[in-house]
Amino acid sequence: MLNRPSLVRRPRAGVRLRNAAAVLALAAALFTAGAVVLDPLGAPGLPDDFAAPSRTEGPGGSGSLEALRERARELPRDPSAWARLGMAHVERARVSADPANYAAAEDALRKSLALQPHGNYTAETGMGALAAARHDFPRALTWARAAVTSNAYSAPAHGVLADAYTQLGRYEEAFAAVQRMSDLRPDASSLARASYAWELRGDAPRARALMNRSLREGAGDAETVFARTHLASLAQDSGDHRRALREAEEGLRVAPRDPGLLEARARARAALGDTDGAVADYTAAIAIVPLPHFLIGLGELQEALGHREQAQTQYALLRAQQRLLRAGGSPPDVDDILFEADHGRPARAVAQCRTTLTSRPFLAVHDACAWALHQAGKDSEALHHADEALALGTRSALFHYHRAMIHRSLGNLPGARADLRRALGIDARFHPLHGPAARTALSRIDSNR
How many domains are contained in the chain? Predict the structure, then answer.
């Protein structure tokens, strides 16, 4: 094997995380000499048999969804044709937020597995991706392990494995899976996952460098849009709102109606004071696909502007959407929990978070649980989850704000002050409602020093 430049460096001893069993450490795993590791030199992908989707062709890669259906009809005994169709439906569900695509995906993937029950790593990887899309991460892990067993050299199988481990809070194993994926195929997909691994560790410059390399390595519009969306998010979450705006607008030149990029531009515009532009972008994104965080983002911006009735319209839409999802058996997501904690019944948010945490002990779920418990007056328990959310060193103004308010309720004013300063230092305009609340809380704590 040729020696290749590293993609990921081993963390310095001084920044290694504490015992992984205690704090779900991410990057303390040691890598063998000569391995490709996740370190900057420069989108989740499909299994090796699948071509990357393009914006012009639509999900599925080598053609539109209808073309893939036609291929499966023409070759009904071809397990690969059914696997490709199944994964295209998974991608369509992700883009459209229409859960009906999940049933179609599962039907196609199970047909593939019926035709080839053993060693069918493309369909096994597809089933893992489908389970992850449904937020059933234990099942995603089972399928990803099966795919890796069927083909240890499939980079996308290791990608789904990494995704499952990440959401299950098994960060060392997730990092190792991204490591292996990058060794096998250092492409846009593995580089994007590497970027996310370092983002979770709080290393924004390294995460940005890797996502920029993912952008350069991307083969089509879909990967460009994915990278630009996440570069905008990285900039926004670091308080660099002008860079976030530039990244979003660069992406929108490629895909003017991409809802994720419209939402990214809305957030940047809101932080820069262009609230009319932000409302327009949120509204446009919701008209394309009413994802929960779009509805919450617009609702909370309207609330911050004093437009109570407009805010309640968005919240009502979200509640109706939640009822449909719960009726379909979908577990509560982080957005659901935080929304219920802030705008509904905190006790219900606590119940939701306990349900979600059992199958998805990811750091964002710990943060949502911390906030729900705080809002419900259970601050001692809340503090444990707030610490878990920040155990990897993730740079999140919202996480630090949540922990600050928990510290304040517990009477730990030095701890509250430190977290408030950290939150506002990361991004003084991190949230239309909580950002001003953080500044007020810090001012009051400092005035009582």
Answer: 3
- pLDDT tops 70 at residue 319: yes
Same domain, 408 and 369: yes
As a three-state string, the secondary structure of the chain is CCCCCCCECCCCHHHCCCCHHHHCCCCCCCCCCCCCCECCCCCCCCCCCCCCCECCCECCCCCCHHHHHHHHHHCCCCHHHHHHHHHHHHHHHHHHCCCHHHHHHHHHHHHHHHHCCCCCHHHHHHHHHHHHHCCCHHHHHHHHHHHHHHCCCCHHHHHHHHHHHHHCCCHHHHHHHHHHHHHHCCCHHHHHHHHHHHHHCCCHHHHHHHHHHHHHHCCCHHHHHHHHHHHHHHHHHCCCHHHHHHHHHHHHHHCCCCHHHHHHHHHHHHHCCCHHHHHHHHHHHHHHCCCHHHHHHHHHHHHHCCCHHHHHHHHHHHHHHHHHHHHCCCCCCHHHHHHHHHHCCHHHHHHHHHHHHHHCCCHHHHHHHHHHHHHCCCHHHHHHHHHHHCCCCCCCHHHHHHHHHHHHHCCCHHHHHHHHHHHHHHCCCCCCCHHHHHHHHHHHHHHCC
Given the structure tokens 């995460």, which residue do they identify? Answer: 207
- Phi-psi region at 372: left, alpha or beta (left = phi > 0; alpha = psi -120 to 50): alpha
Give the whole-angstrom CA distance, residue 14 versus residue 197. Answer: 18
* Terminal C-alpha separation, the chain: 62
27 and 141 part of one domain: yes
- In tens, the pLDDT along 251-290 reads 999 999 999 999 999 999 999 999 999 999 999 999 999 9
318 assigned to some structural domain: yes
pTM comes to 0.86
Q: Is residue 204 one of the residues assigned to a domain?
A: no
Per-residue confidence (pLDDT) for residue 26, from 0 to 100: 27
Domain-embedded: residue 7: no
Residue 414 sits in the same domain as residue 291:
no
Do 54 and 76 lie in one domain? The reply is yes
Interval 334-352: pLDDT, tens? 999 999 999 999 999 999 9
- The residues with which 38 forms a beta bridge, in sequence order, are 8
Task: Name the band, by pLDDT with cuts 50, 70 and 90, for residue 24.
Answer: very low
Do 317 and 430 lie in one domain? The reply is no
Q: Does 215 reside within a domain?
A: no
CATH of the domain at 258: 1.25.40.10
Q: Are residues 155 and 301 in the same domain?
A: no
